[in-house]
């Protein structure tokens, strides 16, 4: 324990949802939920406006929709979140060489290692300046906790949310922690809390009063002794700049249970390749391959195989995963698959037998393809896969510029054209295969519009952005609605998308197929457009004024959810 609050804990406020609100002006101040969209999806982050109605992280998306059906339900955009996280981490590294990231939006900082004076006033000044810098660089807010120990700094940042700063002065730990629930302490999950509850222990003060011997009897020596120290406010864990990963893994949950053995195998192969991509990106190799299979009845099995040496060869990992799958019965249906690599190392050891098998497999596949081509009388062009438009996806239209997908269904996709620096934009609907509409790159959250796209030519670039009118051919007249009924089709949260979860890219089952519609929801055409002016197109395209329409029903959220 330190005598000054020089350990800082930063936690960004509703990070994923806040980033989406910053990128989409029409969602600011409205309930936003980021995570899996479909019936098996799970909430990753909920904005504070959605939390008012009981929506929480790790909650099934289906339950969240019942609590607040008019919220905007969006698939994650991890490339955006990583870019913002990198900017925040740079600010933290400017304060101290000892920065311990816990996730994209959370980290500990040792201020003493950065030369900050060991007193409360200096620590507070650094914390306040950090909050101002984060807002200026990212446009988002973060909460800061300062204390003499990591556990207390994290508790302080949680108490400071949202957008606040809290200091726990050394010597006041027992008084502060006493009335808090035992779940406040790190390492106390539902199972441990239940054991303590049966013994009559529900608060931190009661945990300290129970004594170390009683906690060791209830929880075991290691866990009991550690919990007793934390109940007294003791936490001597240092801030560690480099946390060595123990494993790398990926997994997918499927909207419909997989019963076809070939489909299960193909999905496992795809996951193995994604796992190796992450392994190589980290510059590591691994020796133990692990697969995870969750069946239709939620029973979960894991199987592992240890190789002769560490490897980052996708063929080796793929073949090991397939061998392990042969040991699992999947006839009842597979709900989730995962592939992981552990026993990490910084070097690789080639497996010549796996390489030989891979070369033989590739040669056989080439022979089969050649034989099929001869039977058809020549090669046929590969069939183009249908486009997938999941809610929140960044898109570009040749005429209207940058926007984002609100939803898709029955062969149509609804797009709101706006940028982070523009007013709430217009809503238009297109065919899912419209050649003028294509996926786009995420726009910066702060800093103004980017330079014009050189592909569109110098004439349009020199024309400059022009603000359009208040109507459009894609909107239809209508009056604002109130209440908390089902969202109007085409608006945020009304679209059907399958579970969304991505790390390097969205999981396969999370991207809605073209023309797919969620059961129980209809699609009656384009959304009602807003009366606000359309945002300026970065390509300088003019938007023709065609009339005035009422507010978008998709934006009629907020207080309208109170009836839910």
Tell me what you see in this structure.
The chain has helices at residues 15-23, 48-51, 61-67, 78-95, 120-138, 150-160, 173-177, 190-198, 204-210, 212-219, 221-231, 261-281, 314-325, 352-375, 458-463, and strands spanning 7-12, 32-35, 43-46, 72-74, 99-103, 106-110, 142-147, 165-167, 247-258, 285-295, 300-311, 334-345, 394-397, 401-409, 412-417, 426-431, 437-439. The protein is of the alpha+beta class. The longest helix is centred in the middle third of the chain and has 24 residues, at 352-375.
What does the overall shape look like?
A: globular
How many alpha or pi helices? 15
Helix content: 25-40%
The overall average pLDDT, rounded, is 79
Structural class: alpha+beta
Biggest sheet, open or closed, and with what strands and sense?
A: 5 strands, mixed
Give the neighbour order of strands across the main sheet.
Answer: 5-6-1-7-8
Radius of gyration: 27 Å
Low-pLDDT segments:
378-385, 454-564
Strand content: 15-25%
Per DSSP E runs of 2 or more residues, the count of β-strands stands at 17
């Amino acid at each position: 324990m330190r005598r000054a609050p020089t350990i800082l804990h930063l936690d960004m406020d509703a990070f994923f949802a806040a980033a989406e609100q910053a990128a989409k002006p029409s969602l600011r101040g409205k309930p936003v939920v980021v995570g899996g969209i479909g019936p098996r999806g799970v909430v990753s982050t909920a904005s504070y406006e959605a939390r008012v109605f009981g929506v929480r992280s790790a909650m099934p998306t289906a339950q969240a929709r019942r609590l607040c059906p008019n919220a905007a339900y969006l698939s994650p955009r991890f490339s955006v979140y990583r870019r913002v996280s990198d900017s925040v981490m740079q600010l933290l590294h400017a304060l101290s060489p000892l920065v311990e990231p816990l996730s994209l939006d959370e980290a500990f900082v040792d201020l003493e290692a950065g030369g900050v004076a060991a007193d409360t006033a200096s620590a507070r000044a650094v914390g306040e300046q950090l909050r101002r810098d984060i807002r200026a660089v990212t446009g988002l807010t973060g909460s800061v906790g300062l204390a003499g120990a990591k556990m207390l700094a994290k508790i302080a940042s949680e108490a400071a949310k949202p957008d606040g700063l809290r200091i726990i002065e050394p010597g006041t730990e027992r008084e502060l922690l006493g009335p808090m629930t035992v779940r406040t302490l790190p390492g106390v999950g539902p199972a441990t809390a239940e054991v303590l509850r049966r013994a009559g222990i529900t608060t931190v003060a009661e945990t300290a009063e129970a004594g170390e011997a009683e906690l060791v009897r209830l929880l075991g020596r290691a866990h009991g002794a550690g919990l007793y120290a934390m109940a007294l406010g003791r936490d001597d864990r240092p801030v560690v700049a480099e946390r060595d990963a123990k494993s790398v893994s990926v997994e997918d949950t499927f909207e419909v249970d997989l019963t076809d053995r070939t489909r299960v195998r193909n999905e496992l192969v795809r996951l193995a390749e994604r796992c190796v991509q992450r392994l190589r990106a980290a510059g590591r190799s691994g020796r133990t391959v692990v697969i995870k299979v969750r069946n239709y009845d939620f029973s979960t099995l894991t199987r592992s195989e240890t190789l002769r040496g560490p490897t980052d060869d996708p063929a080796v990992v793929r073949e090991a995963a397939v061998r392990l799958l042969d040991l699992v019965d999947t006839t009842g249906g597979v709900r989730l698959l995962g592939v992981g690599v552990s026993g990490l190392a910084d070097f690789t050891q080639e497996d010549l037998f796996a390489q030989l098998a891979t070369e033989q497999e590739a040669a056989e596949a080439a022979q089969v393809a050649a034989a099929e081509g001869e039977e058809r009388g020549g090669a046929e062009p590969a069939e183009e896969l249908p486009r997938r438009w999941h809610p929140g996806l960044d898109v570009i239209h040749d005429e209207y510029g940058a926007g984002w997908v609100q939803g898709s269904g029955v062969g149509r996709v609804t797009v709101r054209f706006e940028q982070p620096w523009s007013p709430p934009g217009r809503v238009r609907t297109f065919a899912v295969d419209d050649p003028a509409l294509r996926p786009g790159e995420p726009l910066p959250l702060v800093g103004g519009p980017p330079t014009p796209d050189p592909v569109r030519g110098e004439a349009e670039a020199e024309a400059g952005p022009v603000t359009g009118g208040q109507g459009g051919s894609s909107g239809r007249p209508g009056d604002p609605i109130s209440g908390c009924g089902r969202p109007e089709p085409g608006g945020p949260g009304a679209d059907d998308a399958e579970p969304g979860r991505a790390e390097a890219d969205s999981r396969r089952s999370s991207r809605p197929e073209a023309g797919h519609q969620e059961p129980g929801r209809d699609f009656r055409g384009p959304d009602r457009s807003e009366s606000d002016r359309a945002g300026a197109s970065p390509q300088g395209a003019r938007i023709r004024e065609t009339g005035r329409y009422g507010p978008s029903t998709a934006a009629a959220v907020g207080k309208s959810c109170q009836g839910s």
